Amino acid sequence: MKYASLSLSLLIVVGVSTSWVAATLLEFRRVPQSSTRGSLLHSTSPGVHPRGTSGGGPGDNRITNHLDLIYSTNITLGGKDFVVLLDTGSTDLWVLPDDRAEGLYNITDIPVRMEYGGGSSWVEGTIAVASLQMGTFSVSQQAFLRVESFLDGGLKELGIDGLLGLSFDFVTASPINEAVTAQRGLNTTWGSSVLKNIFSQDGRNGSNFIAFDLSRTDDLEDIDGGSFSIGEYADQWKAVAQAPKLYQHPPGSDRWTTLLEGITVGGTPLNLSSVFRGVPDGRLVALLDTGTPTALIPRSVQNDLYSRIPGAVTFTVEGQVQLWLMPCNTTTIVEFNFGGQRIPIHPLDLSFSPEIVTAGGQQYTACFGAMDGNDALASHGFEMSLGDTFLRNVYSVYDFGDPNGTAAGQPYMQLLAQTEAADAMAQVASIRSRTMADLPPEIEPTRLLELLRAEGPTMSTAAPPSAPPPAAAL
Prior knowledge:
Low-confidence stretches: 1-29, 32-68, 460-474
Family: Belongs to the peptidase A1 family.
Number of strands: 30
CATH superfamily of the largest domain: Acid Proteases
Strand content: 35-45%
Strand order of the largest sheet: 5-6-11-7-10-9
Oligomer: single chain
Protein name: Peptidase A1 domain-containing protein
Helix content: 10-25%
Radius of gyration: 22 Å
Number of helices: 6
Region (Disordered): 36-59
Structural class: mainly beta
InterPro entries: Aspartic_peptidase_A1, Aspartic_peptidase_AS, Pepsin-like_dom, PEPTIDASE_A1, Peptidase_aspartic_dom_sf
Mean pLDDT: 79
Organism: Candolleomyces aberdarensis
CATH class of the largest domain: Mainly Beta
Largest sheet: 6 strands, mixed, barrel
């Protein structure tokens, strides 16, 4: 199937001086990726950015690029317009080289390299400074990485010019800030991130938060609304202000990590056990990352979750990449528990959009699980990375707290569920029938797996793992 880029206006509410100004409309694009399972900057990484490096180990980039979407907006940098990926999993701003005339930049001699996907994608260049415009926000001197060489995994082909990080302005999270302070002294501040510069403007009255509505209307990823705001909630979702505050774990982290309190599949709790000392039983450390189109979860959790979906089967490719094949019209409801609130995941988000698979000389339609297993995240301080597969189901707020560091000002997240379980279950049949109207027929996953296995000597099947005893009720 061919997928065209979709676009809409992004409402971003901004403020300067001592009062709020009128809302500004920006282009907010949801870009469908290629159906080829290859490398893409954030779909191949778990959204890990310690000192500019991210990755989940070998093999990840083969299983996470499945017709997903990335979210971007427009900025003006040095008088030139750029389309940048919005990423709560990193801090810095960088732009790729292009064929247009150079912008009005002050280019330094400070080099920086940032790696993603275990080094399968990377950008490197020198730090530059230029004026930045985003909506009605202006920053007169914004540091960014002026990329000179890169292996971006396909962002350029999708019309993405760079990345705008929306995480914390710590040296441990910002390669730019780290490089600037290392060469120019710890008191140097011109290497600050975009958000740090915006939040430092006078008259903001402590509204140091951003909010996302990554809504969609159906399986084809059309858009119904959708917004990114700074310092103010979207009118429709103002109730998020009363949602539980999900404080960082561990406290003082340089990422948007918090505790997941449980997962249920069809109402049955999964057994969860953290690898980190001090995390209560039944909880996991989770990163919320808009820059990751999918979700990366521990392999044991992935297997337990998908084994409870009727008709789902698992197999491995070349002895190392494990995938789950599931009925395209599943209506199983999976819920994630944060702060005592259960957040339903739309059944459509449990799988990637239907794909065409050839087996036994015939074409069939198949649906692969969208939550990938990854056990390498713990080395980066968390156990799961919940990207857009999860975040499409919530209105999410990321509050940086009081910059003075008081207890009352600790950073926190808030989530407001947007998916109604009963409505979502009722939508699946009609939506998937439209999606698959012009596709080959779907057959039972077990039968398709038999045909695939007969043709692929490097493919092996495995019975779904035995479900462990139910955990204590959440």
